[in-house]
Amino acid sequence: MKTLLSLLxxxxxxxxxxxxxxxxDNKIVYSEVVPVEGAQAELYARAVKAITPSAKxxxxxxxxxxxxQDSKQLMVATNTTRLALQxxxxxxxxxxxxxxxxxxxxxxxxxxxxxxxxxxEESTFMQPVxxxxxxxxxxxxxxxxxxxxxxxxxxxxIEKAVTDEIQRIKMIMGTPTSADW
Length: 181
Description:
Elements: H1 2-17, E1 23-24, E2 27-28, E3 30-35, H2 40-50, E4 57-62, E5 65-77, E6 82-96, E7 99-111, E8 116-119, E9 132-134, E10 140-142, H3 145-173
Antiparallel strand pairs: 1-2, 3-7, 4-5, 5-6, 6-7, 7-8, 9-10
């Protein structure tokens, strides 16, 4: 029994890597239609309040949609590594009478090795973790559990940051009502 438990725990990080962030046409997108009380004009006023003070740029501000670019600092930590990363993304809030739709997309993440921002979908953090890796000296060595844990930690930090943003938006936009269409 003890052996079975330790075997299960050994494969837990690998199983977690199988989790994927939500994608539409191979692009990471968090989106939901949320039914709430209120007319479109009232929901628009709430959407304008949802623009964070840290927003880098308001992209669109029309009577039925508000969009902005924002960013968050992420702390990614494992047993062996601690990294601070910057995650940038776009938020779009569209409103109609009795409902709104949020979309969080266009993710960019800082990669220290490249010294810049890259689309999250192309980031090394989102690529499958190979079992072995060729190092600059030409040696082929297995990648350890630490590398797999770091990749999992990146995904979890991104998921938490986006979930926090969604909760913030829902709190400002109002309590959801029944999902009747």
